[in-house]
């Protein structure tokens, strides 16, 4: 049995070089450089490596986990050893999610090129696989894991081991029955095609078959009219169901005979339901589909806090890679903490801590290179400035020369308007958020340096601020001096101290914005929610984590989105619930980093998130989710024989009245195809702000449940009907073939519940 990737690898010279293996230097720093033997495995997708002294110990990773290959000195680590290793020997493997890069040095330029081209070909081939090829690859992977003696066949003992590896606890009698059905040759072993047949028997979807039979009169196919009825009644597609039915047959039906008859078989039906069109997240909402011509203040904007940090806030590494990762995730507001550095060069790090330092110059160079790769819409560069006037001038010069035309230096068309420009108007532009002397309307002549009492943050956010010496605190509280050159680069994001909502309404300009600590923002949201919503319809607000979050943990962003705060900055390096919500919200609208706020947050409606029923446009909806089944859920404990007991929890995040959680019962010893058939019901008071999070956990009666996977979707992006939920890991990366099958119904609430 050959996998799609191994077949692809057989005829390629570069991949043959990779299969033969090579001694490559793995580089972690200037002082850590170790030789490792790297080799592409026979499956054509696993890279194996070990040190020559490691005995039988080794490590592996899948090419599917590699996002891109960088050639030459294109990482901080390889740049630091550039004098020792020429660029034509160096390359970097960049992984998906939050996993660190792998920096490698080959022994010759030709060897480096073979690996660079080879990995790129494998990535491209993996990404171009269709659904059938992905399943074939998955089957082959399991066959290789279970074929312990590597004879290309599997006896019943090996199959029993395989079932446990696949998260299935099946009684021996039934397992033998399936084995016998697949063993057509009666040899007592499963060979290539027999194992494929065994897998097909194992993965038969009786849950989808029952749905299919509900609409198929002959129990064999769905006619065009029957498929249309299914789409109209179950998938709630309305008038477009007839036209869409024909398109689905053309797209997913594998049988040419059925296609000619205008019908869909169970195979085509299954292919449709596991495709993006059958997913819970409407694929049309994944594209850029919102009005991008509104003022900046009318959007939620994906934002990062202390972007330079890869880890915690006290001793973590500062890195340009952190900016690349944040921008790749769609962040449109990144933060730079600037301090005086040696040789007149400003540095970036978390002041008064042991975090490492990087050059401001290098950060801005990275920003210039990666700013608009994931999104063409504007970036806000939030500058926390602790530099002397002299080094501020250096910063201004670096911003000007490195960013060039990308840096916005003056109001669009030279006009100062009453509202902020739109993301569309500011495409390809980087906006500096910092202190500014005077306003855009003023034509006063500034001195070369000026003083101002404005702080970049509403309150000190450094966790060590309480521990500063009396002298340092005195210096911290003095009036800040900053240069005219830097001040002049601030246009639409002038940092100002927040006094009150009334003061802002009477005196503030649209281009003035304030930063709030999470506790201050929460208090304002709770006490004066309606005023906060009004304020955020005219001006930008940035919220940042408490300085006490030294572990780089995050706060729940939802309660700040509820009052329209645009720049709710999170520690994007830290996986967890909060980043799941952030990723869920910004998964829509082409992942461009901008999501248009609901109408009632952009106009003069008196919306109070604490009392949504008082709002004129209030309409509540009922959300009913039947959790039917799960497919090929991941193992939590990799020990042989360990099988999960999965349960599904559905969590609603939104205004306080919408916060809710419900969960199914757990299924004993079955992570392969658990069946729940349980219905969970919710009332949603403000659908426009609600996020729905599906979480799968391994139940443990003695301790906390283990996380298995999750998926978070904006309520307004949900497709009703029978849908699959494609689960993501804690890191936010896809878990291959791991899904939940649900039936979603949304209806208006007609009576008081």
TrEMBL record:
An example molecular function term from Gene Ontology annotations: calcium ion binding
Residues annotated as domain PI-PLC Y-box: 486-602
Pfam family, one: EF-hand_like
CDD domains xref list: C2_PLC_like (cd00275), EFh_PI-PLCdelta4 (cd16219), PI-PLCc_delta (cd08593)
Presence of keyword Lipid metabolism: yes
Active site, UniProt feature: 305, 350
Coiled coil, from the record: none
Record-annotated C2 domain positions: 601-729
Enzyme class at the top of the EC tree: hydrolase
Entry's Gene Ontology cellular component terms: endoplasmic reticulum; nucleus; plasma membrane
Biased segments, Acidic residues type: 442-460
A Gene Ontology biological process term: lipid catabolic process
Cofactor section: Ca(2+)
The protein's name: Phosphoinositide phospholipase C
Organism: Salvelinus namaycush (Lake trout)
């Amino acid at each position: 049995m050959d996998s799609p990737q191994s077949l692809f690898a057989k005829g390629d010279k570069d991949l043959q070089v990779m299969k033969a293996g090579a001694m490559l230097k793995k580089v972690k720093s200037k002082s850590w450089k170790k030789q490792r033997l790297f080799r592409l495995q026979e499956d054509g997708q696993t890279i194996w490596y070990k040190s020559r002294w490691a005995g039988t110990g080794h490590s592996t990773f899948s090419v599917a986990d590699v996002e891109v290959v960088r050639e030459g000195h294109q990482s901080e680590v390889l740049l630091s050893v550039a004098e020792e290793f020429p660029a034509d020997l160096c390359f970097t493997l960049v992984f998906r999610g939050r996993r660190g890069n792998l920096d490698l040095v080959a022994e010759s330029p030709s060897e480096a090129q073979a690996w660079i081209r080879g990995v790129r070909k494998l990535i491209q081939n993996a990404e171009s696989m269709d659904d059938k090829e992905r399943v074939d690859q998955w089957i082959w992977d399991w066959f290789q894991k279970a074929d312990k003696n590597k004879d290309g066949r599997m006896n019943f003992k090996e199959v029993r081991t395989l079932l446990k590896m696949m998260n299935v606890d099946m009684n021996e009698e039934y397992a033998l029955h399936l084995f016998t059905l697949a063993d057509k040759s009666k040899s007592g072993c499963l060979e290539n095609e027999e194992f494929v047949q065994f897998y097909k028997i194992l993965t038969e979807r009786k849950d989808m078959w029952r749905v299919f039979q509900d609409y198929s009169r002959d129990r064999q196919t769905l006619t065009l009219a029957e498929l249309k009825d299914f789409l109209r009644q179950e998938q709630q597609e309305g008038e477009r169901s007839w036209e869409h039915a024909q398109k689905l047959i053309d797209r997913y039906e594998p049988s040419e005979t059925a296609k000619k008859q205008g019908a869909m078989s169970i195979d085509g039906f299954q292919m449709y339901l596991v495709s993006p069109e059958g997913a819970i997240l409407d694929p049309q909402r994944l594209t850029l589909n919102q009005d991008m011509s509104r003022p900046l203040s009318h959007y939620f904007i994906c934002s990062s806090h202390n972007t330079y940090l890869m880890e915690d806030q006290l001793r973590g590494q500062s890195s340009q890679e952190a900016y690349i990762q944040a921008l790749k995730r769609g962040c449109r507001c990144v933060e730079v903490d600037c301090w005086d550095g040696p040789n007149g060069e400003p540095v970036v790090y978390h002041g008064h801590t042991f975090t490492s330092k990087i050059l401001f110059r290098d950060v801005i160079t990275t920003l210039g290179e990666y700013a608009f790769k994931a999104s063409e819409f504007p970036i806000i560069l939030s500058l926390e400035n602790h530099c002397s006037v002299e080094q501020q001038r250096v910063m201004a010069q670096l911003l000007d020369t490195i960013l060039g035309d990308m840096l916005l230096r003056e109001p669009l068309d030279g006009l100062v308007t009453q509202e902020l420009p739109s993301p569309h108007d500011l495409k390809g532009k980087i906006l500096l958020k910092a202190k500014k002397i005077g306003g855009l309307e003023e034509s006063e002549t500034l001195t070369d340096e000026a003083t101002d009492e404005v702080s970049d943050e509403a309150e000190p956010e450094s966790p060590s601020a309480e521990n500063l010496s009396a002298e340092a605190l005195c210096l911290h509280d003095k009036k800040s001096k900053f240069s005219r050159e830097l001040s002049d680069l601030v246009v639409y994001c002038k940092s100002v101290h927040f006094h009150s909502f009334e003061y802002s309404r009477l005196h503030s300009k649209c281009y003035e914005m304030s930063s709030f600590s999470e506790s201050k923002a929460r208090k304002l949201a709770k006490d004066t929610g309606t005023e906060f919503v009004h304020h955020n319809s005219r001006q930008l607000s940035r919220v940042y984590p408490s300085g006490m979050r030294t572990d780089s943990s995050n706060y729940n962003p939802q309660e700040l989105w509820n009052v329209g705060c645009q720049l709710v900055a999170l520690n994007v390096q830290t996986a967890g619930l909060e980043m799941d919500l952030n990723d869920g919200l910004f998964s829509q609208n082409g992942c461009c980093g901008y999501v248009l706020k609901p109408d009632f947050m952009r106009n003069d409606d008196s919306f109070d998130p604490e009392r949504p029923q008082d709002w004129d446009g209030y309409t509540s909806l009922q959300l009913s989710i039947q959790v039917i089944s799960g497919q090929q859920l991941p193992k939590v404990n990799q020990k042989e024989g360990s099988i999960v007991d999965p349960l599904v929890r559905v969590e609603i995040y939104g205004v306080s009245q919408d916060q809710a959680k419900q969960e199914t019962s757990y299924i004993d010893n079955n992570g392969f195809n658990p069946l729940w058939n349980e219905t969970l019901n919710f009332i949603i008071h403000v659908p426009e702000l609600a996020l729905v999070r599906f979480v799968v956990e391994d139940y443990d009666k003695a301790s906390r449940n283990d996380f298995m996977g999750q998926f978070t979707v904006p309520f307004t992006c949900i497709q009703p009907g029978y849908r699959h939920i494609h689960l993501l890991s804690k890191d936010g990366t896809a878990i291959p073939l791991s899904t939940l099958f649900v039936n979603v119904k949304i209806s208006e609430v007609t009576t008081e519940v």
